[in-house]
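ok, trying the design again with the full structure, not the truncated one.
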């Protein structure tokens, strides 16, 4: 399984990278959302872990580009964020084909494995 993590918080990406690596999951990390978009478009990942709230170019922007280019449906995106979502915002994101689930930060690593595998 190949996982891509896109999050501007280096502490979080480092922790998740080490955890997934220890569990035998091949994973790539970027703290730059534009680089993350390029990786999604040019590589093949089984799961994309995407922070929704990043400065300048956020997870919603990445989703919008993927949707516009008709490749969102080919993804398995797990959104995670410390941002408090309304139920309507959650439903709007989950209705998009390619968005698999939403997890709240702080990430529970054991639960993350379950969500990635489902």
């Amino acid at each position: 399984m190949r996982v891509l993590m896109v999050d501007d918080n280096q502490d979080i990406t480092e922790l998740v990278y080490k955890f997934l690596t220890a569990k035998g999951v091949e994973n790539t990390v970027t703290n730059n959302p534009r680089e993350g978009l390029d990786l999604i478009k040019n590589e093949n990942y089984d799961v994309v872990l995407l922070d929704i709230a990043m400065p300048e170019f956020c997870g919603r922007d990445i989703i919008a580009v993927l949707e516009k280019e008709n490749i969102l449906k080919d993804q398995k995106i797990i959104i995670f964020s410390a941002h408090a979502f309304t139920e309507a915002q959650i439903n709007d994101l989950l209705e998009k084909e390619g968005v698999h689930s939403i997890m709240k930060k702080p990430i529970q690593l054991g639960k993350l494995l379950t969500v990635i595998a489902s």
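Keeping the full-length input from now on. The mean pLDDT is 92.
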